[in-house]
């Protein structure tokens, strides 16, 4: 997997939440590993299994870093992870999924209520987390279950 060039944006030039940014919709600003970032929901909708049931993927257990999780998933052969990276995005982590839910609840983004969405955070060799965006539930299920995934991307925010 090749690493995408990281984009940056000046804090003063960011649009309002819910407005277009970097090929998607600006969700929010957040901090990860001491660096401020902007989370962007991409318009693409992927469908597939998270990964192989019974196989623990090293590096896919972060509750906050969806990009690292997605890269680990892709290296292990996850088709939806590979597709997300090809789009210049990644599958959101548990934290990033909660940020998407908050933006949906605020009426800033649209996410399907009728299907569950995979998150990139692995719970065990047998299960991974998913979100029910209709009511905000964070749950986990077997990795071989087919679900949707809504890729996101993030850009660095500078002063």
Search tags:
Mannose-Binding Protein A, Chain A, 3 helices, three-stranded antiparallel β-sheet, single chain, 159 residues, alpha+beta, DUF1566 domain-containing protein, 34% strand, disordered N terminus, five-stranded mixed β-sheet
- What percent of residues are in strands? 25-35%
Task: Work out the helix count.
Answer: 3
Instruction: Name the average pLDDT.
Output: 95
Tell me the domain tally.
1
End-to-end C-alpha gap: 31 Å
- Overall CATH class: Alpha Beta
Order of helices and strands: EEEEEHHHEEEEE
Protein name: DUF1566 domain-containing protein
What does it look like?
- By secondary structure, the chain is an alpha+beta fold.
- The chain has one domain: Mannose-Binding Protein A, Chain A (Roll), CATH 3.10.100.
- Helices cover 19% and strands 34% of the residues.
- The strands form 3 sheets. A 5-stranded mixed beta sheet has the order 1-10-4-3-2. It has a 3-stranded antiparallel beta sheet with strand order 6-7-8. Strands 5-9 form a two-stranded antiparallel ribbon.
- Strand 3 and strand 4 form a beta hairpin.
- The N terminus is likely disordered.
- It comes from Pseudomonas rhodesiae.
- This is DUF1566 domain-containing protein.
A few lines on this structure:
The chain is an alpha+beta fold and 159 residues long. It has three helices and ten strands. The strands form three sheets. It has a five-stranded mixed β-sheet with strand order 1-10-4-3-2.
């Amino acid at each position: 997997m090749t690493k995408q060039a990281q984009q940056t944006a000046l804090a003063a030039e960011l649009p309002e939440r819910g407005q277009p940014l970097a090929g998607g919709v600006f969700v929010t600003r957040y901090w990860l590993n001491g660096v401020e970032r902007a989370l962007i929901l991409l318009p693409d909708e992927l469908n597939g299994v998270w990964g192989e049931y019974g196989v623990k993927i090293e590096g896919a257990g972060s509750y906050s870093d969806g990009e690292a999780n997605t890269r680990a998933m892709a290296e292990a052969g996850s088709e939806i992870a590979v597709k997300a990276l090809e789009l210049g995005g990644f599958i959101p982590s548990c934290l990033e999924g909660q940020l998407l839910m908050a933006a949906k609840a605020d009426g800033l983004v649209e996410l399907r209520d009728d299907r569950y969405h995979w998150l990139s955070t692995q719970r065990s060799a047998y299960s991974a987390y998913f979100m029910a965006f209709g009511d905000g539930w964070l749950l986990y299920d077997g990795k071989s279950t087919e679900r949707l995934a809504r890729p996101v991307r993030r850009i660095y925010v500078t002063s």
